[in-house]
Amino acid sequence: MSQKEKTLTPKLIKKLWLAFILLVLLMGSSYIFITGYFANKYSQETTQRLNADVAHHVIAEKFKDASPFLEDGSVNKPLFGDLMHDMMAVNQSIEVYLLNETGEVLYSVVLDHGDKSSTKSVSLTPIEFFIKNKGERFVLGDDPRNIGEQKIFSAAPYSVDGREGYVYIVLAGKKFQEVSDNLLNQYFTKLGIGATLLTMLFSLVIGLLAIWFLTKNLRLITKTVRKFHDGDLQARISNPENSDIEVFANSFNEMADSIVGNMDKMQSVDLLRRELIANVSHDLRTPLAILKGYIETLQIKNDSLTEEQKQEYLQITHDNVDKLSNLINQLFEYSKLEAEQVTPVKEPFSITELSHDLIAKFRVLAEQKQIDLQLDNPEENCLVFADVSLVERALQNLIENALKYTQANGKVTLSLQKKGKNVEINITDTGTGIPVNEQPFIFDRYKQVDKSAKKQGYGLGLAIVKKIMDLHDTTITVLSRPKEGSSFIFHLPAYQV
Q1: CATH number of 247-336
Q2: Where is the HAMP domain (predicted)?
């Protein structure tokens, strides 16, 4: 048997078998005990019911001709000797006792021989119960020869020569008990052997059927799990609501869906990582190639270049170093955001003042490109509750992006407006716009929209903005039409003074 086949016979099956066998043995033992107990009770009740009038007959027959007491008040022992002789000829297990009105044993042939374990009185409660119900209801009475034990009996009251008491007859005496115990042991032995054989047979048949039925769904689930483990990622437990272990079946299906979903995400992340590496490699290669070319030119033609040419080449080299530095900083920043290593420190601040600072910072660049950069609604002071450094970074990326794609004589506007409990921030430009089919993807990392343009793609700037918005539990919306410009809109919670 292979290792895989062994795993399909789990220890659970063995434990079920062990539990089932123990349960059957317990039930068999209980059955034997209960059967013997009630069989014994049935035998005793039958014997008592059949001999209920024996005591009455003794009084009627024996006390009619002779008194149980002599003239001096002592017990007529010869009378009881004859009585026991006659009764034992019929039933050797019978024991006759003469009791007074308090239950004290006045005489019995079996006690006359002396018995250290005997008692000199019996309880009258079962005797009175027996007489009251005329022997129709089962009751046990004290055994005078064995203290603490009870036996079936027959009893009847007498009244002779002014003396009262009871004739108390134990119907299952010591001899009967010895024979009964011997037969009972033999009965239990035979019953035990027979019951054990039948129990083993039926437990084998019923156990096989029961365990097969109980583990049917478990085997199905085990088979499905094995298929999933072997690479069948579409393997699922069908109709889990009909399974005997519905919770486990549903849990497995949910777990399998989660695993497949995570695998799809990992594949998607891996694909994006490959694309990112390819795009970054391209963007790094271009400025590096330019740097290398101009540095080699300066080294080779240093003596033949004019001072003006040298300064131009150095400026080009400086610009490409800035591009490399900016790209590396973006990569570092985005990697921290994606790895969730950045925790926003939210505090109240003036988004209006921050906007003034950013407009002033980018005004020189805008004037160089002949773009009108304006702040709308600069008079009203809008306070928000957010991370000021992250919001500044997001606005900076959006303004840079707007200036990049806006032609000369165009316009870029940063507007602020209170709307209920939020402040709406809107960066609008009159640039080239974004095709409708490309708009859902512009926040993907390194997504280049206008591939025909010579400008660098959207890169990581908008992806960083999206991550910052996620950290603030808000969304950013883009409204754009080709050749008409774009608007990037997001909201921050207003701070109530």
Answers
A1: 1.10.287.130
A2: 212-264
Q: Whole-angstrom Cα distance, residue 73 to residue 285?
A: 138
pLDDT of residue 258: 84
Query: By the 8 A CB rule, do 151 and 140 touch?
Result: yes
pLDDT score recorded for residue 149 = 85
Closest by CA position to 105, among listed 120, 91, 95, 115: 120
Beta strand spans in 85-180 (E): 95-100, 105-107, 141-142, 150-151, 153-160, 163-170
pLDDT, tens digit, 9 for 90 and up, residues 23-64? 777 777 777 777 777 777 887 788 788 888 888 888 887 777
Where exactly are the structural domains of the chain?
Answer: 3-41+181-214, 52-170, 247-336, 344-493
Check whether domain 52-170 has CATH 3.30.450, yes or no: yes
| Residue 284, burial from CB neighbour count under 10 angstroms (0-12, 13-18, 19+) | middle
Indicate the pairing of strand 372-376 with strand 347-350: unpaired
**Which region, left, alpha or beta, applies to residue 434 given φ > 0 means left and ψ of -120 to 50 means alpha?**
beta
Return the closest-CA partner of residue 297 out of 284, 283, 309.
Answer: 309
pLDDT band at 426; cut points 50, 70, 90:
very high
The C-alpha atoms of residue 43 and residue 437 are separated, in whole angstroms, by 97
The answer to whether the CB of 121 falls within 8 A of the CB of 103 is yes
Confidence of residue 176 (pLDDT cuts 50, 70, 90): low
- Rounded distance between C-alpha atoms, residue 80 and residue 12, angstroms: 71
Q: Which long-range contacts (CB under 8 A, 24 or more apart) does 252-257 make?
A: 252/221, 252/224, 252/225, 256/228
CATH number attached to the domain at 344-493? 3.30.565.10
Cβ 489 vs Cβ 426: under 8 Å: yes
User: What predicted TM-score, i.e. pTM, was given to this entire model?
Assistant: 0.47
Report CA-CA distances (Å) from 152 to 19, 258, 355, 365, 404.
41, 74, 109, 119, 114
